[in-house]
Design brief:
5-stranded parallel beta sheet; globular; single chain; 16 helices; alpha/beta
């Protein structure tokens, strides 16, 4: 442990009636007294190692204290390297690098979270986010907002204090966010869609950051979010400088999602749908999984294992039946039974997944439940891989829409992007137009 960690552990174990910061100072004093007393013994059970601004304390059982200290120091150096990566490494990739270090036998049982905490504690300038990302201490406010913008979504309006608290909750050791009007400029520069509305009422306060709200339209007896005016992409867009900037932005959005192991919905014109699968797989190393094929395979496995399996033709006809009918209800019962196994298969993928053929996700009402659970898994499990969803849609929309049903939290966030046609049609599959920047593609 570092001396700071040991002081925190003593304070947690023993407690203190003193207020902060006196309680923390006293805990550090107690640790220092204990360590110096132990080191003064003829046969000390501990060793002390100074590493820059950090002090490491290791148990010297069987003369292996130096080995433990060497490993902890190497972890700290690796954490400093990870903190400087652009973009930030996902927790999965960071753990891969940490686990690649040769560790003493006594470290074999340490959890992933403890290894991350030790690496950051032993570092000189690294910190650990609430999502187990390693980032640099004193990270700029602009970068903090860009990385944690998902924390700002899901509310109709946010006060200045709420924006500051949510970003600081994700990156507590980054630079504090400024107040208005500097915060207004930051949000506008990052193009997150938030606009300050001085008339908005937020609790007892007046004024808040708001996202433009789409209207509601009825469709087929259900209520869905209305989409903005259709914007059709053309190949001519790839011929100007604005298109070149769009391609680079799209490339960064996808790579940030992969590095931070997030969910990302991608929309593409139907005529370019197959080409999109191929290009996305080649450029970003994605594993293509068809939802239709995944569902059919698991349904076949379920039916084959039944004592009295249903006729497969009856199952197929049930899919064409009217919602609410007996056959439709029976089919939905079968689907619900295989959904957990389907989710586990996707979670166990060795690389990020590109989920295609998404129409049935909306038809079977799985956007909020099944797809929502997968998205929450990405937020909660530091070992998770990113999940990308490919949607065929002939119009550009503000958020992800599957068969006229909106995917929650897609609008105005980095969980949705339209694939520029020029990115697919360009000769360079790396997310940049062929030729020099600014030239026609």
């Amino acid at each position: 442990m570092t001396a700071v960690e040991l002081a925190e552990a003593v304070l947690l174990r023993r407690g203190s009636v003193q207020p902060s910061p006196t309680r923390e100072r006293w805990a550090r004093a107690v640790v220092r007294a204990a360590v110096e007393t132990e080191l003064a013994r003829q046969q000390s059970r501990w060793i002390l190692r100074r590493c820059g601004k950090r002090i490491l304390i290791a148990e010297d059982t069987q003369g292996r204290g130096e080995e433990l200290a060497d490993y902890a120091e190497a972890l700290g150096q690796l954490a400093d390297e990870c903190a400087e990566q652009q973009p930030l490494l996902s927790p999965v990739r960071t753990l891969e690098r940490i686990r690649a270090l040769q560790a003493p036998d006594s470290f074999a049982g340490l959890s992933n979270h403890r290894l991350l905490r030790l690496a950051v504690a032993a570092s000189q300038s690294a910190a650990l986010s609430s999502r187990a990302e390693i980032y640099p201490k004193g990270m700029s406010a602009e970068r903090s907002i860009e990385l944690a913008q998902g924390a700002l979504l899901g509310s109709g309006a946010l006060s200045v204090a709420q924006v500051q608290d949510r970003i600081q909750g994700r990156y507590p050791e980054a630079r504090p966010l400024p107040g208005r009007p500097q915060l207004d400029a930051l949000l506008q520069r990052l193009d997150l869609g938030f606009i300050w509305d001085a008339k908005a009422e937020h609790g007892e306060q007046r004024g808040a950051y708001c996202l433009p709200r789409a209207g509601l339209l009825g469709y087929g007896g259900s209520t869905i979010a209305a989409t903005p005016t259709s914007i059709h992409y053309t190949q001519q867009e790839a011929g100007d400088i604005a298109a070149a900037r769009e391609l680079g932005q799209f490339d960064r959005i996808v790579r940030n999602a992969l590095d931070s192991a997030r969910f990302l919905a991608l929309s593409v014109r139907p005529t370019l749908w197959r080409r999109a699968q191929q290009r996305l797989s080649e450029v970003f190393g994605l594993e293509i999984v068809s939802f239709d094929a995944l569902l059919l395979r698991h349904l076949h496995g379920l039916c084959d294992g039944m004592a009295n399996p249903p006729d497969w033709q009856v199952v197929l006809k049930a899919d064409a039946a009217d919602p609410g009918s007996v056959d439709w209800s029976r089919l939905q019962g079968l689907v619900r039974r295989v959904l957990p196994a389907m989710a586990e298969e996707l979670k166990a993928a060795s690389r990020p997944v590109l989920l295609t053929d998404s129409g049935l996700i909306a038809r079977y009402g799985l956007i909020d439940s099944w797809l929502g659970d997968l998205r929450r898994h990405l937020q909660d499990d530091p070992r998770a891989q990113a999940l990308l969803l490919l949607i065929a849609n002939d119009t550009a929309t503000a958020g992800a829409v599957i068969e006229r049903v909106s995917v929650p939290s897609g609008a105005g966030s980095r969980e949705f992007a339209r694939i520029p046609s020029a990115w697919l049609l360009s000769a360079d599959a790396q997310g940049h137009p062929a030729g020099r920047q600014g030239e026609a593609v």
